[in-house]
Each structure stands twice: as structure tokens, then as C-alpha cells.
Amino acid sequence: MHVVGQEEASRMSVLGSWLRATIEADKAVALATEQDPRDTIARCDAALAVLDEHGIVQVTGIGKDTRVMQIPACKTCGTKHGVPCRTLRLLARGYRHREGYDDEWSPE
Asked: What's residue 35's pLDDT?
């Protein structure tokens, strides 16, 4: 089993919140400024659906102290990739030049 600590779980929460806010902001800007925002809105909605699909769930796993416990994991990827999962890291990479992006989120 993958060992997940609180720090790793916190990164998932921060990445997910930052990514959702960034995508929602893009959607709002498109609605306010683009004459035909359909493509931008569609891309934002698709990215938000991916974000929702890879949300955090609690699973049984091994904690840092090797006890069986409930740990956060991606509901789609499970624990095999850790949190944040590679899918969300790749999604966030498209926004890496935005304020608030953390290089620790890089999928590399």
C-alpha cells in the first residue's frame, strides 16, 4: 500500500482548491469578455469534470506509523499514485504560469 501523510493530503486539498478557482475564473472571464465563449466554457467545464472525477476520498491504508488507518486518496486513481494524483498534476500544469502555482505540483 502507498503511505500517505498529512502533508501529502494537504497538497491535494490546496491543489484542488487552487485549480478549481483558476478554472472558474477563466470561465467567468470568458462569459464577461468573449463574444462567443462556448469553446472556453466547454474546456473549463471539461476540466472541472476531471477535477470532480479525481476528488479526495478516504480509504483504508497504512499511515506513517505503519498503523492501518483512513487516508486520503484520489477516488479514481486510488492510492497507487498518491495525492495529488498524476491526472490533477497534469491538468494543473496547463496553468503553471498563473499566480499561485506551486512547482511541487509538477507531474515530473
From this structure: 92
Three cell numbers, residue 24: 472558474
Distance, in Å, from the CA atom of 83 to the CA atom of 58, rounded to the nearest integer, reads 11
Mapping DSSP to helix (H, G, I), strand (E, B) and coil, where does residue 95 land?
coil
Report the chain (108 residues): mean pLDDT per 10 consecutive residues: 49 84 96 94 96 85 75 76 82 95 90
- Put simply, whether the predicted model's pTM sits higher than 0.85 gets the answer no
Instruction: Work out the burial of residue 87: count CB atoms within 10 Å of its CB; fewer than 13 is exposed, 13-18 middle, 19 or more buried.
Output: middle
The predicted pLDDT at position 4 comes to: 45
Half-sphere exposure of 108 (CA within 13 A, CB side): 5
Helix (H, G, I), strand (E, B) or coil at 98: coil
Q: What is the DSSP annotation of 48-86? A: HHHHHHT-EEEEEEE-TTS-EEEEEEETTTBTTT-SS-H
